[in-house]
Amino acid sequence: MAELSPTAGESNYSQDIQVDEKLVPKKGLSLCSTRYGIALIIHVCNFIAAAQSTIINITMVAMVNTTDHQFQFNGSTEQLPGGPNNAPDSLPAEAPTYDWSPQIQGIIFASAAYGMTLTMALSGYLAGRVGTKRVVGVSFFASSLLIIFSPLAAELGLISLIATRMVQGLVQGSIFGGQNALWERWGPPHERSRLCTIALSGMLLGTFTITLVGGLISQTLGWPFAFYIFGGIGCVYCPFWFILIYDDPVSHPWINVTEKEYIISSLAQQIHVSSQKQPLPIKAMLKSLPLWSICVCSFGHQWLVAILITYTPTYISSVFSVNIRDNGLLSALPFIIAWVIGILGGYLADFLLTKNVRLLTVRKIATFLGNFPSSALLVALPYLPPSYITTMTFLTLSCGLSPLCQSGIYINALDLAPRYSSFLMGTTRGLANIAALLAPTVSGFLLNQDSEFGWRNVFLLLFAINLSGLIFYLICGDAVVQDWAKGRKLTRL
Predict the structure, then answer these.
(1) Ranges under pLDDT 70 in the chain
(2) Spatial distance between the Cα atoms of 150 and 168, rounded to a whole number of angstroms
(3) Distance linking the first and last C-alpha atoms of the chain
């Protein structure tokens, strides 16, 4: 990224500071610092944005007339311990329901991904130019407004709802893609894993929260209120974003001077040349095998994540005879475990780096643990007798291990090309997000075509895609700065 300082004098100062490798790890241990505060603010932003994005996954159980479209697991269901349904499935009378088949539901789930795929790369590039504060802030406010109007869009018709979700995907892609530029300027190399995982884990906490309370809100107030509440929370949070977020340490008015100098000196070797003065080496990027391995593996992992987030409530509903409130409780459990493991994974990755474990080894271990066990557990589920304990254990382990990839492929672009990382992280996530577009659509088709073995087909396809991407990354992945990303060194007079 460009210089951290907006003025020439400050820029020269930051570039003259030498990196003391012995001091970097010691100064990087403090959690009570501005950079961790920035990570926490982004964590909350991702929490709200992810909750808004996944509201419909749990409310769909209440929105659809399930008596007309019911598909079971292996032709039978099992009830939870304690009696049938544990409670009557009583939804408020004023909450409308719709006659949507599983295939239509898959299209609705995937519609937001269409827009998200288009803006992730562009928003990463734009945030690198005009700043994350503006790009993410404006997009976050727009997303909150669209969530509030989603129930009205559903009332106007299926086309209106799909169009609304596509526009919502456009602005949410800018939220998730635009925030990457901050870590070019705020993330010391020895702390990037933990800072990024703290920020990204907000998505998991948001998914957990909406899955937990979304069913309760739908059962007590009606499913439209889930959209109203979390859309309103987003609108309230927007002013705090614009007040507290700054694009770099130099422009932050409250940062400690020692911390500012530490961050600038840690990044000094990555900012000798401003990326704003150099064109993007698109041809070299397209020829980069390590970069393609990130894209392919991220695609496979996003297919896994899309199935877990989108279809966990639906799968539990097909295996157990539960009402929407209990469905929400069961569906939320895997995501709180994932939230904890995601944060711990970032600290573990940075710990291994301080013990002189190779960076590439850390990235590949994290990527493997976040992919193979998760997909293997899911593909085994249909071959086991439906059991409350077995199903929830496998779902929890699968979802819990998957965020370990946050310390692997999802920040690997920062290793390959620090000066272009905002664009590359947005691009790789945008390409990977095509999986979030295809997975619900394809899965909905498979479930609609075969009510008895539909889940088996869904999980087998997931495993094949996930394993293929993982193997490609393990063979071709890299973690050293690429030649095309080093740029030219300028001689200052």
Answers:
(1) 1-31, 65-93, 269-278, 451-452, 487-493
(2) 10
(3) 22
